[in-house]
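WARN no homologs supplied; continuing
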Amino acid sequence: MRILRWFCMAAVLAIAVSGCIKVEQKLTLEKDGSGTLHIRYGMSEQAIAQIEAMEQMSQAMGEQDGLGMDDDTPFNFDFDEQQVQEDFAAQNLEGLDLRSVKSETLDGWRYMDLEISFKSLSALSKTDYFEDNELRLTKDAEGQYVLTQYSGDEDIVPDGDPAEQQQMMQQMAAMFAGMRLANHIIVPTDIIETNATELDGNQASWVFDVEDDPMVLTKLENLRMRVVFSSEGISIPEF
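OK structure emitted
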C-alpha cells in the first residue's frame, strides 16, 4: 500500500472497473516531527466483483493477475482486517505503529480504514508506504519548512496530442463516475504557501473528483504537492 502512488494507480484501475474507487488519506504532523497517517479506501461491490471475475479469467488462462492486484505491486486494495494486520507486521517497519484497522460495508461500497502512527517523517518516507515516491522536509531561504510529496509516474496518461488526450478523457468521463481521490496534510503551524486545491486553517487538501473534472489523470501525472509552513516555535529535523 503505497500512498501517493495509489492516486495514480487508482485512476488506471478505474478505467478497467468503471470508476467506483475512493481513496482518502490524512497526514497529521506534530511539532516534534511525529504524527499519524489515516488512510481510507473504498471500492464499490460491483467493481470488486468485476476485479474478481477478471482475476479468475486471468488465472484460468495461466497468467499472473493482469490488473496488478497481487501482493508485489504498488496497488493492492485489501479489505481483510486480519490480512492487513499480518502484512503490516511482516514488514517490521521501524518507527511506525498500526493503531487501528477497520473494514465496513456501506451503501454498496466496501471500505477499509487504517490509522498509523510514525515517530518521524523520515521513518515514514523510508517505508513501502512511500516507495516510488519522494517525501521531503526542508527549509527555504526564509527558514520556513517546506513539505513536498512527489510522484514521478510518467505513464499514467498515454502520449499524444494534448487536444486528443482531452477529448479522450471527456469521452471516458462516464466510466470514472464515482471516483474520488483526496490527500490532506495537517501541519503544526500556520501555512504560508501551498499549491493545494483546498485550504482550511492548518490543513492543505488536494481533492480530485472525476465527476467534476474528467481531466483528473493529467493532473495526477507527476503531481507535486507542496506546503510551506512556519518554523516558529518548532524544530523538526530536515531530510
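Helices lie at 3-16, 45-60, 81-91, 121-125, 162-171, 216-220.
OK
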